Amino acid sequence: MIAFSAISAINQILRTRDSARTSEASLIHGLAGLALLGLFVASASAMGFLTSALWFLPAMAMLGGERHGWRVVLITLLFTLLAWLLFHLVFAQSMPPEFIFGEVR
Amino acid sequence: MMELLGGVMAAITPESLLAMLAGTAAGILVGAIPGLTATLAMALLLPFTYTMEPLTSLGMMAGIYNGSMYGGAIPAILMKIPGTPSAVATVFDGHPLANSGRAKFALHVALCSSAAGAVISAVALMLLAPPLVAFALKFGPVEYFWIAIFGMTSVSLLLANAPAKGIASALLGVTVGIVGMDMVSGAERLVFGIRHIAGGINIAVLLTGLFAIPPALAMLEANSRRLGNATVTGVGITLREALGLVKTWLRSGLIGVVVGVMPGAGGNLAGILSYAEEKRAAKDASRFGQGDPRGIAASECGNNSDNASSLIPTLALGVPGNSVAALMMGAMLIQGLNPGPALFSQSGEVVYGFMWQMLLTAFMMLGVGFAGAGLFARMLRVPTGLLAPMILVVCSTGTYAASNSMVDVWIMLVVGIAAFFLSRSGYPIAPIVLGAILGPMAESSFRQALLISRGDPLAFAASPISLTLIALIIAVLLFPLWRRWRHKMAAA
């Protein structure tokens, strides 16, 4: 039954048209978003989450249709700084080494 | 009774109060932004709860749950866009009232009604969960096996538009749930050489991938449909006007509690049913749909009174009835707390403390809601195209922080990709989580029952409780067929 469920799900996914469900992301936006997220995770392994957030946030914002450049830059910097403070000071979590921010722990 | 009182002291520590307050404010903010839901906020928080005290993490969760239900009413009233699915019926009368210059009054009606619903629901949780636990102590492995099957079947069939898709989702969840070492033989199952998952897939990773990634991607889409400015106009509610809604609250509260206990039903059903019942019971129903405050009160009280009551089967039996309950259960499992009858005797202070937190956050919601009405309305202007990547960064970082492992982040990504394609194709996500939680429970109960009965299959239908559960499962399985037959008859 599990195998049949998996086959049925894959079959349905392949047959689903773009406009099938309006509450979900469109196929283009979704695939591009997932590709960027995959790159972000790969990049985070190499140069840390916060450093990677510096390119990931503007890239995703552009994909989401955000066109106010200064706002994107400002929010990206503020968010990254806030995240650094949160993980460094509040949670004291050990994270992968950061390319820009150094060791976060 | 003593345990219940002991829970108050545990719930009112400074850490717990602060967590509840932060959770309530965050919940209202999340609910106020269309596209963000309680499940998303709780999924984001989950990986960070490893280092928290049990009542700190549960208090935050309780605040998010209650707060987000009210938050969903804000865009429903001001913009005609329900912030959460549960606020659909709030639009009917909330938006006409806002259009007539009484937005502040409409928001206050929604706030008071949400708080009333949350109080009714928390009281129902306190009153109904302990007797259910006393009853559940009579259950053996056979009964737990059938309860797990009933939980998966009912939620899968009731949540999906197509029953087969619901069942398929639940079975995919069972597959994920059985990954790791077999508890009896010690053999590895579905590990495929990945040592990291030999102990099973981390529930927080699964929940984050399922409930955070697809909504975040959907928000990229929402950014292109930018919302306009919303203003809070007019005067607020008076005490006399609020007292005039008490009857509505009691009626809708009762509906919400009953709907909450039912597996697979949710706040949206509670809100719509309460609205319909209020309209039916009204002497003059002509004002409904044109800005009648009773419409807002019924919808908001109904969807909030579903909250704590939906946790009754989770706490008492260990069977979550919806995705939020599954997330709450995930938060408890992370803390080493196994929901079920044993939890009440082993960690009574935490369980009863959590019940009080569900009650206290209802009152906090009133304070935060009244104080921050203007701020929450301004949240509608937040560009979701910027929020989406922040959510994805937080859930990736949180997942890493939970186990200090990039493998978990990759697993979260894979789960998120699967969830994106499945939800686009109409497969409900909640049954996947229920399958992952209840599948292993059903398996271990099944094996225990066979060992105790020395392999006698008739043991599975020997007790009246088992027979009742089997009858319920058959009824749930036949329900879609009956529904289809009724539609055919109506069309003919």
From TrEMBL, chain B:
The chain crosses the membrane at residues 20-46, 58-78, 105-129, 141-160, 166-185, 197-217, 253-276, 315-334, 354-377, 384-403, 409-438, 458-482. Keywords: Membrane, Transmembrane, Transmembrane helix. It comes from the Bacteria. Residues 17-434 form the DUF112 domain. Pfam families: TctA. This is C4-dicarboxylate ABC transporter permease.
